[in-house]
Amino acid sequence: MSDTILRLTFFLSILIILIMAEILLPKKKRIHNRKDRWITNGLITLINTASVNIVHIAIPLIAIVAAVDVSNGKMGLFNIINFPIWIEIILTVIILDFIIWGQHLLSHKIPFVWRFHRMHHTDRDLDVTTAVRFHPFEIIFSMFIKITSIYILGASAIAVIIFEIMLNGMAMFNHANLRIPFRIENILRKFIVTPDLHRIHHSIYIDEHNKNFGFSLSIWDKIFKCYLDQPRDGHKDMKLGLKWQNDKPTKLGWSLWIPFKKL
Fold first, then answer.
1. Residue 54 CA to chain centroid, in angstroms?
2. What does the chain look like in DSSP terms, one character per residue?
3. Which of 132, 151, 214, 225 could be 45's S-S partner, Cβ–Cβ 3.0 to 4.6 Å?
4. d(CA 127, CA 174)
5. End-to-end CA distance of the chain
6. In whole angstroms, what is the distance from residue 230 CA to residue 169 CA?
7. Is the pTM of this model over 0.70?
8. CA distances from 256 to 107, 200, 249, 251 (A)
9. What is the CA radius of gyration of the chain?
């Protein structure tokens, strides 16, 4: 089974499980119906997949050279320091998670990058499909950061596959419109990013959506003082999205064009 099939299998399995969980244990009442949002977010996912595949074909020669060097053991931290594979996997997951956290933080702090990232934040309902609602240009940008990081680390294929499965699974989990019992939620958030924690990041209030940048591990926000425990309006009453927006996030064209709008 190829790594692509493996990741797709995990993605679809987690997606189906979380959709069923959202139906049985919803946290917030929806503003828009599922059909409009899911069609738009699904089409965005297909466009992103096509974009990444095109970029894979057009990857610069330097990346190919780096990949050859990594495979030959001539490049990357883990090819210089020979850790046991289980230590390499743990370190790869932790380091890449921190890099993704840092990229997410910068996407809010750098105005040009925010123009693309804000498409993700225009979803007025938060559910498992929001986890794949990213602008194609942001996906390509993120892919290059990830590839560069992998080459610098010299990470093995198995470590990267495990990280990708964890990242995709956690992104769907913490975007899910899911009601988790308080005691379980309180334990989980000590280690990982829960739906309640990440929902705060999608608040209409700027001071709240500039908190809780993590996707998997909650430790980075705590270390760098970006952690917010609860939203000011409470989870059931809080408004999601951006203050200025209307109902157009359910439209594909509007969503893809938002980085080029003057707001």
1. 21
2. --HHHHHHHHHHHHHHHHHHHHHHS-SS--SS-HHHHHHHHHHHHHHHHHHHHHHHHT--HHHHHHHHHHHTT-SSHHHHS---HHHHHHHHHHHHHHHHHHHHHHHHHSHHHHHHHHHHHT-SS-SGGGGG---HHHHHHHHHHHHHHHHHHT--HHHHHHHHHHHHHHHHHHHS-----HHHHHHHTTTB--HHHHHHHTBSSHHHHTS---SSBSHHHHHTT----S-TT-TTT--BS-TT--SGGGSHHHHHHGGGS--
3. 132
4. 9
5. 47
6. 23
7. yes
8. 17, 24, 9, 9
9. 19
- Which residue type, as a one-letter code, is found at position 110? I
Enumerate the domain spans of the chain.
Answer: 3-260
| Residues 181, 168: Cα–Cα separation, whole Å | 23
Neighbours of 215 (CB within 10 A): 23
Q: How many residues does the chain have?
A: 263
pLDDT tens digits, residue range 50-68?
554 444 444 434 444 444 5
> Phi/psi of residue 47, each to 5°?
-65, -40
**The one-letter amino acid at 245:** Q
Instruction: State which of 1-15, 110-124, 212-226 shows the largest mean pLDDT.
Output: 212-226
* Placement of tokens 């680390």 in the chain: 153
Region of 230 on the Ramachandran plot (φ > 0 left; ψ -120 to 50 alpha; else beta): beta
Q: Please give the Cα distance from 48 to 142 (Å, whole number).
A: 12
